[in-house]
Amino acid sequence: MTSLLGDLTVAPPAPVRPRPSPAPPRPASPEPSAVPDTEPPADAPGLPPAPDAGPERSRSVIGSRVPRHEDDRLVRGQGKFVDDVDRPRQAHVRIVRSTVAHARLVAVDVAAARAVPGVVFVLTGADLIGLPPIPIRLPRGDEPPGCLQPVLAHDEVRYVGEPVAAVVAEDPYLAEDAAELVTVEYADLPVVVDASTAEPATGFDVSYGDAEAAFATARHVVEIDVSVGRHAAVPMEPRGLVADYDEATGVLEIWGATKVPVFNRNVIATMLDLPASRVHLHAMDAGGGFGARGEFYPEDLLIPWLARRLRRPVKWAEDRAENLVALNHSRQQRHRIAAAFAVDGTLLALRDHVVHDNGAYLRTHGLLVPELTVTMLPGPYRLPAYAARIDVVLTNKTPCGTYRAPGRYEGTFAREHLLDVAADRIGIDRAEVRRRNLLTPEELPHRRDLRALGTDVVLDAGDYPGLFATALARTRDWATEARQLRERGRTVGLGFAVFLEKSGLGPHETADVTVEQDGEVTVHSGGTSLGQGIETVLAQIAAQRLDIDDRAVHVINGDTNLQPFGVGSWASRSTVVGGSAVDLAATAVLERALQVAARVLGVPAEQVRLTGGCFSAIGEPGRRLSWGDVAGACAPGSPHLRPEDTPGLSARRVFAVDHMTYPYGVHVALVDVDRDTGHVEVLRYLVAYEVGRAINPTLVEGQLIGGVAQGLGGALYESFVYDQQGQPQATTFMDYLMPTAEEVPRRVDTLVTEDAPSPGNPLGVKGAGEGGITAVAAATANAVRDALGLTGDVGALPLSPHRVVALSR
Amino acid sequence: MKPAPFTYHRAHDVRGAVESLHELGEDAKLIAGGQSLVAMMNFRLARPSALIDVNRIDALRYLRRDGEGLRIGALTTHHTVESSGSTAALAGFGVLSHAARWIGHYPIRTRGTIGGSIAHADSTAEWCLLAVLLDAQIVVRGQVGERSVAAADFFHGFLTTALEPEEMIVEILFPRPAPHAALSEFAQRKGDFAIVAAAVDLDVEDGVCSAGRIALGGVDAVPIRVPEAESLLQGAPATAETFRAAADAAAAAVEPGSDAHGDADYRRGLARTLIERACAQAIAV
Fold first, then answer.
1. pLDDT band for position A34 (50/70/90)?
2. Of A59, A323, A758, B112, whose CB has the highest number of CB atoms within 10 Å?
């Protein structure tokens, strides 16, 4: 390093170079510009300039379709999932789960199980008396008492699948054998299955304006009564945990946490009375999260508790039968929703009475899903008055939490279905009723007189009618196709839905960016890799700022030691909040590098330029310093490191945000209904989505297409049915029907626009994790309604064949 | 989802398999493709004390035609039947290779066997339905030798058959070609067990049905024939009107149960639709 630096001489003075600054958001243009589907050429129109773009800059990393960094290891089978983790001397856990929906626990007899050779330990609720229940991660403050789930049931069970005991054995087969020998005596209690006939545990109102007056005087009032079925995320990989407690160091290591590792670390530390700094959750690959996986569940305390108690590593791998009754369910709601219109179809008010079935307990999400349902329900429309009531009912079924687009999937379905029914009743075109009522760009930003997740609802940049018009223009051929197919006797329908998403929930995210002496860059982020490609996206953001190849950036997500301030990956926040933190940290690293490079080059910092990934002084392009050289100059022992300097080339920055950012989009579906069997085939599907700025268009499109595939489940296939005794009827993939490649349209069209960058973050980005699923139920149900020529609503989802046949009669 | 403990034994011929069944007692089970049994064991819905693996008995993998009809060895996979449609053995039995495509997914068809499916006796299984429709003989072997059971007598109830604990299915004999036969079924997703399945076998000459057989799965605990509907086919023109009348009669005659996939009325409607579709396909071939 010294020899290289020794060759450098002082550069002549040069004009001051502007400091790196965020890309200014571009104004919304009337014509949406779609993201090109091939890698754009340098300085491609339609992409914002890279923050550091100098004249010599060859390409923009942000906005380019770089291959996913995760895929190399994943397609080679080198990913590391929790079940890949094995520790010497590990024991295996099997959870004994309640077989009844509601009962007093009279006795739990574990003697026979304990006597089995190879059984290490059997834990029951009686061993954990005094341990608090699982806390709410996002409390509102008005949650009713007595609704939280204990780690192990000890006096009462409230749903089939609730953990009652845990058996630890030398291998997982033995553990399952012994678990069968645990006998539980239950005294039956009354079972509540149907939320619409039960007393709510709590509820709240959200309103503004004078809805009552609007309904009293409106020319048209249209009301429907629709339900969304109980379904769930069901990620491809079930949960799992490995915990290992080192008595010598007092460190508890845990593998298998995803989504919110730092929060989970803190809960474990509190409940086990350990210092949080001695609890280390490792970064893992995960086979899908979708909101459900990675929250704090009973097992997240049980497994570490057992490892600490037994002084040996403990492993638990959830099987699918458990997964379908243990992981959060979601979505089950009934909406009695009404709209008041003026004579010309202008929306005057909306009211909704929602009954939300939350299952047996309030888990970590507390009342989040009910809150999101009613606060996001007005969507992208100009709505003078709004009155919503949501009753939250606890039933004897698996507890519910968030699932990709929580509250919006349900609310968008209710609202958009209502608009179709209303348009038909009033006698105006279904598109026209939306056009008349969508907020226009001139009306944005638009503040709604309500709060969501503790933030004011301020709809930021956008052109809702513009995107709607583009989506309809893009699918004009489908309307023609539908007409032609109908003429040939087919039962075909076209449906669309406009939706508002939310993303980028704060309060903050932290990122560390470090340049190593070999020129490689490490990013430690608080997000987690759930399959969404966040490692690639964060690498692109850092690479853009540092003017290097994204392949030189290595992102480690969700390791609680490496990033102890992480907030996690949920609510479509990682690119927005985590990405902005990476951008800030990389900017700080760049500023530091410019200073140190100036020392090395012997010129004022203003005269140093970063071009093509190297630092040089203006006018002396031949003398170039690589990032590794500058990192070397920051290392202890370097003559350029001053006594007051922190050694190394690294920065930790936090990005804090008060407001969410609101992406929006349009879904269009073309369906073909078999009136005789009730089968609904989705022929064509389009998602148009405004993302502010696509860091990697391929990944945005992947999110949207995956969202559609998943959303068709709740629209047409998936339902956790219970009988009157509270016994789950869909306990295997034979009865819980998830869409497969055969059921998803061969091609899902995507139209990603970048016309309304978010003003709330330096990258201009909006989240992309949920917009693919938000309006699937709405667009699909509207298409089926169109196909069948219904005058009323479709009633309940999913639109399974027998329901479709009943509707078509 | 780990099976309860069991012992594993491998049979190399039918005699060995039957002897093992005798020695290991009535909780022992034969395993062929394992496409239903293994899943049931993992859920601990089935708890055989011993598994006797018959997959090495290659002598039971064949499709053979002789004077008595088409003989299919019990260990012949669904995929083998599916891909043998153009062979001489299957001349006049195209319905079998076509129907095999409805069975599960490709990986399932490459391991699952016709004998295993018949022994499992799911009432919506394609082979069970076709065996009843086409008056197949189920050839079984036990300690005392071989016997044949007519398909109509073989299926006793939900997953229950005439097979004795120490017997093994060795062959399915289809006694007569069925050039105008077809199977149609409906499942919500491709590859799932049918909610209702219908199979028809028509004797058609010069546009007239001299006779016809109709079998339904998913409307009772076992696959059933519907004589009330079959009688309407006899001597009637092979037209859509005839098929509709037969389908209506079948729908009226059956008494299906209800579950989460549909109530009795829905299943009756499916039976009607699927019979009509199967008839249309049967005369098209």
1. low
2. A758
Domain count, chain B: 3
**Which residues of chain B are modeled with pLDDT < 70?**
285
Which residues in A have their CB inside 8 Å of a CB on B? 172-173, 176-177, 180, 319-321, 676-679, 717, 719, 721, 729-730, 732, 734-735, 737, 739-740, 742-743, 800-802, 805-806
Q: In chain A, which residue's Cα lies nearest the Cα of B2?
A: A173
Token representation of residue A329: 């369910």
Under the banding of pLDDT at 50, 70 and 90, the label for residue A527 is: confident
For B188, the closest of A319, A320, A737 (CB atoms) is A737
CB contact under 8 A, B193 and A717: no
Q: What is the mean pLDDT of residues A484-513?
A: 94
- H or E, element range at A631: helix A627-633
Contacts of B190 in chain A (CB under 8 A): 740, 742-743
B266 near A CB under 8 A: yes
Decide if B186 and A729 are in contact by the 8 Å CB cutoff.
Answer: no
Residues B152 and B169 placed together within one structural domain of the fold: yes
Q: Which residue has the tokens 């888990």?
A: A363
Percentage, residues of chain A above pLDDT 90: 86
Name the fold adopted by A329-504+659-807: Aldehyde Oxidoreductase; domain 4 (3.30.365)
- pLDDT, mean of residues A137-161: 95
The strand pairing partners of B201, in sequence order, are B181, B213
Q: Are residues B274 and B205 in the same domain?
A: yes
Query: Angle CA(A149)–CA(A132)–CA(A107) in degrees, nearest 5?
Result: 65
Q: Does B86 touch chain A (CB under 8 A)?
A: no
Q: Is the dihedral of CA A441, A445, A450, A456 positive or negative?
A: positive
- Residues from chain A that touch B2, judged by Cβ atoms under 8 A, are 172-173, 176, 319
Domain assignment of residue B239, given as a range: 181-284
pLDDT of residue A661: 87
- Please indicate, yes or no, whether residues B93 and B159 belong to a single structural domain of this protein: yes
pLDDT over 70 (residue A26):
no
- Statement to judge: residues B186 and B257 lie in one domain: yes
| A733: its two tokens | 């993939």
CA quadruple A173, A175, A178, A184: dihedral positive or negative? Answer: negative
Identify from A176, A675, A802, A805 which residue to disrupt to test chain B contact, counting B C-beta atoms within 10 A and taking the largest count: A802
pLDDT in tens, A700-712: 999 999 999 999 9
**Quick check: do A82-190+238-285+293-326 and A329-504+659-807 share a fold?**
no
Tell me the average pLDDT of chain A: 92
- Domain termination site, one of B174, B209, B233: B174
Do A529 and A69 form a contact (C-beta atoms < 8 A)?
A: no
Q: Is residue B1 part of a domain?
A: no
Cis link prior to A445 (omega < 30° from 0)?
yes
- Cβ contact, residue pair A677, B262, below 8 Å: no
- Output the six-digit token pair for B100: 């095999």
Instruction: Provide the CATH number for the domain around residue B29.
Output: 3.30.43.10
Q: Residue B115: which CATH number?
A: 3.30.465.10
Partner-chain residue, chosen from A177, A319, A802, that has the shortest CB–CB distance to B261: A802
The answer to whether residue A9 scores a pLDDT higher than 70 is: no
Is A406 a residue whose pLDDT tops 80?
A: yes
CA torsion A371→A372→A375→A376, rounded to 10°? -170
Contact: B44, A172; criterion CB under 8 Å = no
Look at residue A5 and tell me whether its pLDDT is greater than 70. Answer: no
- Residue for token digits 């243990």? A326
**Confidence band (pLDDT; 50, 70, 90) for A8?**
very low
Rounded to two decimals, the ipTM of the complex is: 0.95
The yes or no reply on domain A2-60+506-656 and CATH 3.30.470.30 is: no
Residue A538 clears pLDDT 70, i.e. is over it = yes
What residues in B contact A321, CB-CB < 8 Å? 1, 43
- The contacts of residue B15 (CB under 8 Å, 6+ apart) are none
DSSP H or E stretch at residue A672? strand A664-673
Q: Is the pLDDT of residue A52 over 50?
A: no
Residue B2 lies in a domain: no
Same domain, B85 and B43: no
Q: Which residues of A touch B278 (CB under 8 A)?
A: none
